[in-house]
Every structure is written in C-alpha cells, then in structure tokens.
Amino acid sequence: MDVASAKMIGAGIAMIALAGVGIGMGTIFGSLVTSVARNPAARDRVFGLAILGFALTEAVALYALVIAFIILFV
Questions:
Q1: CA gyration radius for the chain?
Q2: Using CA atoms, how far apart are residues 58 and 17, in angstroms rounded to an integer?
Q3: pTM, whole model, 2 decimals?
Q4: CA 43, 45, 48, 51 torsion-angle sign
Q5: Ranges of H-type helices in 1-74
C-alpha cells in the first residue's frame, strides 16, 4: 500500500463522523417538530435551542472535514 492510498483510507475514516452528525441533526429537528406539535406556545423558546444544537452539531462535521483535508494534503 502506498502513501496516497493510505491517505485516502485515513480521510475516509475521518468522514465516518458525518454519520453521527446526520443522526444528531435528525434527532434535533425531529424533537423540535414533536415539541412544537405538543406545545405550539413554546415554539419561540424551543426553536432557538434547536438552532443552537444544529450549529454545534454542524461544527463537528466541519471539524471532520478539516481533519480529512489535513490528512489528504499534509
């Protein structure tokens, strides 16, 4: 196995984190829909927390992407 294919495998392994990000986003917005359906008056409070959770979860995806690029190009 040469260095280029080892780098590709390493970058692919780094991208496994995106599966967790997808699950996390689905859970966040699924919970948002459920909570708003149960209590529409709490929409404004819950929506802000959902967006915060979305941003933090998305940050994990960006970190995984940066790590994959570091593996590939350094």
A1: 17
A2: 11
A3: 0.82
A4: negative
A5: 3-14, 17-38, 43-73
